[in-house]
Amino acid sequence: MDNESFPIQFNNGIDKVKESENELYAKAADRLHQLAEGHDDILSGTIDLKEPAKGHGTSSAYEVKIMLYMGSDHILATEKGQLLESTLDSAIDAVERQVHAQRTQQRNH
Question: Where would I find the H helices in 1-109?
């Protein structure tokens, strides 16, 4: 499978970043496609950007959720933070760790 052949759905629920959503999508998609390079286990993914609901005791300005579908397995990372780009990076880092752990586990069985 070509490393860019799996689809990534990008859902931006943050109005004030609409002008930079293409840049954010490109950055995230590049990293996720690099993660898939040389492998055929990632079938698709979703990236959700949103602002947490106000009044729920959160000091976070942004929430990023990334889901990767790997056959019958799903990898999910949700990160919250004050800066959108660093929150996105943290979510991708978490997904990368989980994918590497999943691949290691599959090799050992």
Answer: 21-36, 84-107
**Model confidence over 71-91: pLDDT tens digits?**
888 999 999 999 999 999 999
Place of tokens 């929150």: 87
Q: What would the CATH number be for the domain defined by 8-107? A: 3.30.160.100
Q: Which amino acid is at 25?
A: Y
Starting at the edge strand that comes first in sequence, how are the strands of the sheet with 62-70 ordered? Answer: 8-12, 44-50, 62-70, 73-81
Tokens matching residue 31: 């990293």
Segment 24-51 shows an average pLDDT of: 93
Please write the tens of the pLDDT for every residue from 38-77. Answer: 999 999 999 999 987 666 566 778 999 999 999 888 999 9
**pTM for this prediction:** 0.86
Residue pair 9/46 in contact (Cβ under 8 Å)? The answer is: yes
d(CA 6, CA 104): 21
Kindly list the domain boundaries of the chain, sorted by start residue. Answer: 8-107
Distance CA 85, CA 49 (A): 11
